[in-house]
Task: structure prediction
Amino acid sequence: MMHGMTTSEPEGTYIEAGQVTFHYLELGAGAPTIFLHGGGPGCSAWTDFGPVAPLFAAGRRCVLVDLLQYGKSGKPVIKGPMWDYHADKLIAFMDALGIERADFVCNSWGGTMALDLAARYPDRARSLVVTGSMPVFYGPLAPLPEEGKRGRAARMRYYGGTGPSPEKMRELMGSLEWYDASAIPEATVELRHAQSLDPEEMALAATADNPRGDWQDLTAELGRIQCPVLFAWGKHDGFLTPDYPLMLARMVPHGNLYVMDNASHHLQEERPHDYHAVVSGFLDQRDHR
Result:
């Protein structure tokens, strides 16, 4: 089944927060819900959540954020612990928008940021939905595939050799992010490829020193997260098999796990209506702390 963008990209807004510039999109009204996208080449808030955002916007205030170093947000070189840096900047972003507490709906890279944020700023997160994230560097029974470096290797392949191309973007998405590569919309490939050519993003990719900050293992932080967390996982995730999020769900005090069939790493794009049904049901639960 082909899934395309259900609407064209809305007009975005820039805001200064924490001495950096964020770009974000806002749709709908109601409970504040912040969407944090993944870390693949060319990812942005709209490429990752465009197909599903209008469904959530029917009943929620949806804030789709371009993460720092991605999309139209600032591209700072990050020093020190990486997830702490992002969490602190996202809190500044929330402060700038006057959002005291929010639900977070996250894919991959963004989910690890949200887990750290919820551990360090427990009053700011009402609940988390996390898909395909890697907050710890071990699995329950065996080492992680490619020692947890599969995404980094894919990024190097994409930017290396002959450089970025639409064909290489489609291959990356089909091998790691989508269960059915034939269903990837051409428009999404084009958006991702075009964004990956951003001069600042390409400069970050070519930087010999790590421009993304120091990697953090969040084992200790997971045990401090007090809000409910739903780990929504693709049964065929290209990075981490479902035994990994089951481990995570047991590491957080109020963890839940949902495994979706016929999906890999980008559930919200592959099966947007089903993803919305599952996630909105979780967000609407009354016993969220």
